[in-house]
Amino acid sequence: MTDPDYLPVTAAVIERDGRILIARRKHPFMGHGWEFPGGKLEENETLEECLKREIREELGIDITVGTLISSRKHVLNCQSAIMLYAYHAEYVSGEMVLNDHDEVAWVAPADLNAYSFPDPDWQIVKDILKITDEKKRTV
Fold first, then answer.
1. Is 101 in contact with 12 (CB distance < 8 Å)?
2. Could you tell me the domains of the chain?
């Protein structure tokens, strides 16, 4: 793919009690692995608004969106490319409802390596582990 337009996509790294929420899609998308929930930016929406909306739609919960963890371009196939923005987020309220996923797990950052992620989400895992490692060294 030459000079692709990159579709803006958000991902939430939702933390609660020292664990991170990951979810597995009901219908295979880029395999049947785990992901950080989120989705595509709609017209006239900020990235933060997109992330809150997507999490409400996919999981039925409300979050607060924190700092940007990473942003990376990913070419998914010859017709699709995304710019993935991953944000720290915190669970605020709501009962978890799995609209787009068949399973969720609250995972300690150190245990993320045990799960199968598509490449874009795997890059987020690497960023989380780097941040976690840096925090340990400053304590």
1. no
2. 7-138 (3.90.79.10)
